[in-house]
Structure formats: structure tokens, C-alpha cells
Amino acid sequence: MREFLIDIYYFLLALEPRYKIVIFLVIALLISAAIMISIVLRERSRKNSIEARERRIKRQVEPIIQEIVFTEQDASQFKDAIKKINRIVDSTLYRRSNMNILNELILYYHRNLGGEAFTRLENLYREIGLKQIALENLRNGEWHVRAKAINDLSTMRMGETLFEILQYTDAENMHVRNEAQYAAVKLGGKKAMSFLNDLESPMSEWQQIRLLDQSRKFEYELIDHIGPWLRSKNDTVVIFALILMRHLNQYHEREQLRKLLYHRNEKVQEKAIETAIELAYSECIENLYEVYELTKNLRVKTAVLKAMGELGGSKEAGHLREVLVSGKEYELVMAAAKGLKRMGRHDVLTGYRENELSEKGENIVKHVLDDRI
Amino acid sequence: MISYLILGVISVVQARKYLRRNTYTDYLNILQSPEAPSVSILAPAYNEEATIIENIRSLLSVRYPNYEVIVVNDGSRDRSLTKLIEEYQLEPVNFAVNYKIETKKVKNVYKSKDPAYNNLVVVDKENGGKSDALNAALNVSTGDYTLNIDVDCILEEDCLLKLMKPFLEETDKNMIATGGVVRIANNCRIEKGRIVEVNVPNKLLAQFQTLEYLRSFLLGRVAWGSLDGLLLISGALGVFQKQLVIQCGGYDNETIGEDMELTVRMRRYAREKGIDYVVGFVPDPLCWTEVPESWSVLRRQRNRWTRGAVETLLSHKRLFLNPFYGKIGMVSYPYWLLFEWLAPLIEAFGIVLLVLFSLLGVINISFLYLFIALIYGYTVAFTIATLYIEEITFFQYKKRRQLLRLVIAGLIEPLMFHPFVVYCAVTGNWDYFFEGKKAWGSMKRVGFSRPTDRGKRITGGGKGKKNKPNPAAPLPSNNVRTRPAT
User: Is Zinc-finger one of the keywords (chain B) (predicted)?
Assistant: First the structure.
């Protein structure tokens, strides 16, 4: 064997440099492929061992958690249970990973339980040291670790961490910022939403949806800050304030809608019209005529026609009829017809002279009158 | 080789970032939200009677709060429409179709009498091809966004939530489209229209395509997505901003590769109109499709993809190295041109020359062998790297045996599958330029070659359709893929 290898060595040595390079590359590539396969296989073994450990920990910890959650325990029993859990997760090599497993388990229970069980799980989360770990992650981790830590703290309703979390509501990293804003609303309620007062970074629609979802859990109350938010220089804050107005019935600031109908941002205009409809703000109807004339945006025009159908009277019915007869864009004619239907003006919808309506208009009227659609 | 390596590295970074973000993402917020934007799922169907009921049911059970499903029966000659009418208790309604885009005549629009299917709209129209059917669906749709799919694909339940997320998260630019990863369903276990067990296909040909799709979607598109250089959102799965699609004129009826053509046209339009836009890509496996298990069906499919890519590249040649179009003009388009269109031709030409020169004795044969070994080594190493990335990211093939089968397929692939793909690309070019095959014809979509039992394991497939994996997929070696299966 040794001689064979020596022969190969001398053979390679005698080759031209270009041969040597190519042979080297081929061997390097094949070796890297082999190494990668071995890494993949090792990775699988590692995953399997983690899964096995996870199963073991769950099997041992779950009964203890269930006992804590579902039975009345005094302080010493609770302490004993914590000691038992600590013994299970304690490991020189895997403590961190074991604590993660425990964390996910408690979060899982927390998401699926309510009432007294909720509070007991929160106590367990604190006492076992998971809250502390989350806070350390929040202070020292990479962006995704910080975002996850905030998410965990808010899921576990760790209200005492609110002030620390509030520091991140305008953080540079979007994910950390979003989680912090969400956690602030979840833990601090509407008062914690004051971060919107001077928020400079844009709020994504995704984030607005999340915050709205949390806000809808508030008991009905007036949100004092809505006024300043509606005047914010940050358009996304204005849009979010309009969404809140609509879904949380914040009538007290609806006078401001009139101004927002003329906002430079068409998305804001559209949301303002939708909000006016929802809050039945019929006082702005004259402004809607102006907006209809001024805007070139089809969506805003359509929203105006919808608003006229919802908020208007016979004058608006006349306007809608006019659009129905002479409108060119399908969307506008459709919106006008729908508006008339919403007003209950079937007489206007069906009372046309022959050839007054175009074929398109007639089809649209039939469409609108067909309740199956 | 270097370009594939760079794309691979970018993909890994992006996929990991995506996974990290999703460890704490809760889709429940949007699922319950009255503010979720409306989406229309557009599903063109042609002669799909064997599977249409089950597939529509799968579409109707997608998790999203505000969507409609628009099925377009594109003049099917079988009982597709009758079956739909019977199953979903459909009746014709007085729908005023908004012909924003010209299409073949819509005969009827149906809605269900059953309120449970209130979000189902079925359009019956004269046959006009896939693009025409999609345009008809666009005309009927009411959503702000459209999810375009192949009716015979299997969607993940959260598919729409995940595809919509990039639209909702973007704050700086105008997100005009997002695509998602398409995976191979052959041999996977499917129950009630959902994938419940992921398996590696049994047939070697499908295994080759599994590797190809992995490379293409996992490495290629994820990287191009993060570089905002995607030129293709697969026709099997893509969400588009409807208004922009309409402004661009909808799908082009005259092209074979309508999905790529639309993506390029939208990007071009946005750029020309000064819209600061972005195209997103979700690295999650969101859609499952069958791939051909017969060489002849695969040959037809690849031939068509080649023609589609060539056609699109030629019709948008203005983009080539045009700085006005930014990255797509300076990077994506030239990349496509070189790697997706010309590379197979250059490779085929090179092989012919090598054989010729070898016969004439003007080539150093031993060095040639070594060089071939180098290419082979690189291809194999790249494939194994793809499997490694799959392992550390989405980890779909969980059994060790499955992994080994893919490794073995990876060893054979450069010798069997790759030359075949090159051959298909060459014939595709020949057919396009010399035979004048530039369109689908009136009966474009072929459909499954056999009915699929959706309640069981998919054991064979044979559609020569759509689902090109990514064009710009890193192909191992001097690889030649035209556009890896959409």
C-alpha cells in the first residue's frame, strides 16, 4: 500500500502544472462533498438526540406542570415542584437548550389555557428563571433573539418588564421594534400606546393589524391620544389611528375626519372615508363632493360613492344616478349602483327610460340587484 | 461556478434569517383581522374533471380571512363544469363582467346556492388558453391581490398568509408580487387535499427533478428574491398586486411562458412609470406539484419552457444591459440570457466540438477526462451542498434513507439528467427559431396524464405542464437548465 501511494505521489509530481491543478480541484471537490454528507448525517444524529432529549424532558416535566396548573398548591409544594423541574433540566452541557425546551412548553400551555392556570404558569415562568433568561436575551442577544425574548415576555404577560420593553418601540431593527410595540400594547394597554405620539419609523400594515388585534381586547374607553395621532407627520400613524377610530368607535375625534379627507396621501384619504362611513359621519357629505371632484384616484372616488350611498339622502341619490348614467369607469358605475341599492332606492335603479342606460350600465344594475352575488 | 456559489451563500443567509423571524410569528392576528386585504385566488382549469372537486375543496379551505376563489372553466371538453355545478350547487348569476382585459367570451358566471361556498365563483368561458383564462378571472375578481395557481397544485394551509406577509410588511417600497417555493409531490402522502407525509419520489427521473427544484427554489430564487432580481414568479404559485397586473394589460395570450413574461413586464412597467417597487419571495415550501415521470412528457415540458424563456427574453430585449432598468437590466436579464438561454446551446456546441476534436486527435484526451471529472465533481458537490442547506433550513426529507436516495440520484444526475435537459433546451431553441412553434395553440394546457387519487400517495405523475422551478436556479456545473420547471 505504501509503495502504491509513493508511486502515485511520484506520478503526480511528474505531471504538468495544469494537470496538478485540475486533479487537486477534483479531489478537493469530492472530499468536500464527502465532508458535507458526513456533516448532514451528523446533523441528523444531533437533531435526533435533541428530539430525544426534548421528549424526555417533556415526559418528565409535563406531569409536574400539570400538577402546578390544575391543583391547589401551597408555597412549599410549589417550591418542591420547581426544584424537581430544575433537577430535570439541570445539565452542564445542555442547560441552555433544556431551558429553551422548558420555555416552549410553558408558552404552549399558556397559549392554550386561561383563568387561574394562566396566573400559575406566569408564576412558574418567573420562579424557574425563564423571565430572567428572556431579559438577558433582550439586553444582549442578536436581533432575532431580542425579538423572541420580547415576544415571550409579552406572551407570558410579564407586566413588570414593560418599561424595559418600551425602550425598544422605536428600535432600529424592524423586528425588534415591532415586537416591542406589540408587547407594549399587550402589557400596558392603551396607555402604553403613547409610543405612537412621536413614532418616526413607518408602521407596516402587518404591524397595524397586530396592534389592532390587541387593541380590540381593550374594554371600551375613549383613547385621548387619537387626536394627536391623526395629526401625526407619520402617515402610517394617521392610518392606524383611523383604523382604531373605526374599530373602537372613537367618535370624539371625528371632526378631524373632515380635514383628513383632503390629505395628500391617498391611502389616508381612503381610510378617512371608510372611517366616516363606519362612524356615520354624515356631516362631511359636502366635503365628499369636493373630494370626488378633486381626486383622480379611482379608489378614492369609489370610496366617496360608497360613502354617499351609506350616509347620503335624496341629493346624493341624484348624484349616484348621474354617475350610473354617465360614468365611464366600471368601478364607479358599480359603486354608484351599489350605493343606490344600499339607500334602498330600487326605484332609481330600475326606473330608467329606454336607452338611457348603456349596456354596461344595465348589466351592472342587474348585477347589483342579483342578491345571489 | 462562482456565480452559483455566491447565490448559494446569499440563499443560506436569507433562509436562516427568514426562519429566525418566523420562530415567533403568529399568523392568528391576521387570520382574525377585519383589516386583512382581500385576495382573489385565480384557478384556470381545462379538462380537470378527475381532480377538480377535490382541488377546489382544497382551495376553499385555505386559511385566510378575506378571499374568494375564482375557477375558470376554459372551455373544457370533459365534465369539469357539470361536476362543479353538481357538487357545489352552482347556478348562473347576472354577473356584470368588467372587461378590463380582452378575453374570449364568458358564457356564464356561477355562484353557489349554498352559503358555505359564498366565496366561490365559477366562470365558464370559451377556450382561449391559460393566459386567457387568467385574464377572465382577473376581470371577474374583486380582491386587491390575486393568487395565481395551477388548479392541480396542492397548497399548504397557511400558504396565503405567508405569501401576503411580505406585502403587509413592506413599508418603504411598493411590493408588486411575491412568489413561493414549489416542491415535488410525487410519492408524498396526501389526505384531504393536504400533504401529510413528505417522501422522495420513487422514480429516478422524479428524484432528479427533486434535486433540480431544490437547487432552483432553495438556492436560486431565494437569492434572487433577496437581491430583488427575480424575473420569474412561478405560474404555479404567485401573488400579484391586481391593479398593476391590469395596468400592464394582464397575461399575454400570445406567449408560452406567460408567468415569466408577466413578471418581466410588470417590473419593466413599474420601472418605466417610476414606481419604487420590489418583488418578494417566501422561502417556505408552500405549494406541491407533480412532476413528469416519463422522459417524453418531460421533454415536451422542457422544450416548452425553453421556448417560453426565449420568447420572453427576446420580447424584452430592451432590458439587456440597460442601466435605466437597474438590477434587472444590468444583472438579472444578462444572467438569464447567459445561463438560462445560451448556456445549454454553448454547452451542446462545446460537446460537439470536443467529440470532433477528439476524433481528429487535436485534443489531449487525458486532460479532457480530467476536466470532465472536475465538472462532475463540482456538480456533485453543489448538489450535496443543496441537500445540506435543505437539512439545516426546511428539513422536509426526514428519513435517512430518503436522503441517501437523493445523494445517489445526485451522483447519477450529471450523467443522465443533465445531458437530457441540454438536449431539450437545444430542441426547444430549434423549434422556436426553425419550426416556428411560438405558442401553445388553442389547446394549450395538457393536464395530468392520468387521474390522481388525492386521497392516496401520488405514485406517478405526468403532467407536462407548468411549474417551472426557478429560472435563475443555480445549476451545477456548466449546467443548462432553461427554466427549471416553473
Answer: no
